[in-house]
Amino acid sequence: MTTTDETQTARPAGRPRSARAEKAIIDATLDLIGESTSLGELSIEAIAARAGVGKTTIYRRWSNKEDLVVDALATLKAPLPRLAGRSLREDLIACVEVFLHEACDARSRCVMNIAMNEFERHPRLVKRIRQAAIEPRRAALTALLQRGIATGELRADLDVPVALAALIGTVVWYVRGLDPDHQVIQEGVVEQVVDHLLGGLTPR
Predict the structure, then answer these.
(1) In a domain, 13, yes or no
(2) Structural domain includes residue 82
(3) Of 11, 72, 110, 160, which residue has the fewest beta carbons closer than 10 angstroms?
(4) pLDDT, tens only, 137-172
(5) Number of domains in the chain
(6) What are phi and psi of 88, to 5 degrees?
């Protein structure tokens, strides 16, 4: 049977994207970074070899290594959970729960390690990583603390950036004190972290 042009299904230009290939490329990028491959040493060739794809497959999706690294690291920072809004303490516990578990994950730690240690060598790339993966979290936490000030749950004179540093710094310090071969978060520690911090942040 002859099919006329009018009855043919239109096909998009170019090759269809393969979700499996994209996941393999993202995973390969994260694996190599997690294996202490510096951003300067990381190459498209190494990523392609690890992912089992050709370099052209990568370049069809990302124009350069920088774009790929930003997208890969951004996948490690999912949006914070929907907060109940019933109390500042409850919402902080929900956030710290996420931060602690991410900090125990070798891949997720890459984002903070790169943001803290690679800025002098790769300032433009690190700035993009911060914008994609860190700033949305910072904005959400800032809004949460500002809400706490507005409701009277936090001191009116609270320095929000210092409070943020105390919150994140406590999580990082706690995780670094865990056994690197057996990182287990003790039951109840999330509530303890939040309650200790709130002891210095709430009105007297």
Answers:
(1) no
(2) no
(3) 11
(4) 899 999 999 999 999 999 999 999 999 999 988 887
(5) 2
(6) -60, -45
